[in-house]
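Standup notes
- HV: blocked on the assembly model, inputs below
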Amino acid sequence: MNKQQLSTALEKAGRLRLGQFPTPLHPLAQFHKKLNAPTAYIKREDLSGLGPGGNKVRSLEFLMAEALKQGCDTVITAGGQQSNLCTATASACAKLGLKAVLVHQGEEPENLVGNLLLNRLLNAASVYIGEASHEQRDAYLPVLAKELALKGQKTFIIENGASNGRGALGYMAGFIEIMEQIELHQYPIRAIFVPGGNGGLAAGLVYANALLGQPLSVIVVSVEYTAPVLRGHMQRIIDEAQDILQIPVFCDVEKSCRITDAYMGEGWGHNTEESMKMTYDFPQMEGIFVENVYNSKPLVAMQDFIIKEKVSGGLCYLHSGGFSSLFAQF
Ligand SMILES: *Cc1c(COP(=O)(O)O)cnc(C)c1O
């Protein structure tokens, strides 16, 4: 399969234009110099051009297309209070004239900072459900959808951090974009470092990479789950994406990428000593901010791989956004 064929299959699955693509892909001059390393690049998914930007915009292009197709007027999603998905969803809803309902654990804080402030400015409805596990929070979404249906609202639910087959189509399109930029500029990029939370971003990239004959090696840096658990999530998401696209090519995650859980510390929401240091070092080197929970960790991994000479050739770091949550992390 070539890029054009994959691109056609993705358009057929239903896509809206919400972001500003292509996002830049450019060299990291100082990082490269400091480490005296293989040439390092950055893919600026922080600059995806809707709301605070970030990786969720690509998933939403496909998920919101489905919501409109189903005739929904309200989108419900859930996440931690600083969830980038919630704010990206509220931004997309604003642009499309839909109502966003965001479900968070805990109580509404007196001072709205970071993404909570943006959600308020976007006029999203925020629902706080008190102390609850992820599972309890997610189980509440269909209950809420039923309540809203009684008021005449037709809802679309985005579950699981948008990490499902349809959401993953976003990074299949993203992968095509990256390959086009590499070819256009003749960048010597051989490997790409990406964060793995629920695994939607990584699944999309890994699947597209496999379909196009593995032009890159993908190194997935887990920020939340152990490598086997993340691998399981990614496999399920790829199988779902395959069902949507009707492409009969089996992609085995185990063989198609490298997943490391060595940089996540205690997992989601926790920084490590190195990731904390990176939130200072990287802006001081490149003038680009990274946040603490997701995207400082793949950068630490890329640095460590360079120092330990675990990789060769040009390397690319995928910056997945999250700038607005940074304000609530310190
Ligand atoms: C959600 C998110 C991720 C992780 O995406 P998954 O698809 O859940 O793996 C990474 N970085 C940022 C900034 C995010 O908001």
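- HV (later): unblocked. The chain has two domains: 3-54+164-328, 57-161. The chain has a mean pLDDT of 95.
- Next: hand off to the docking folks.
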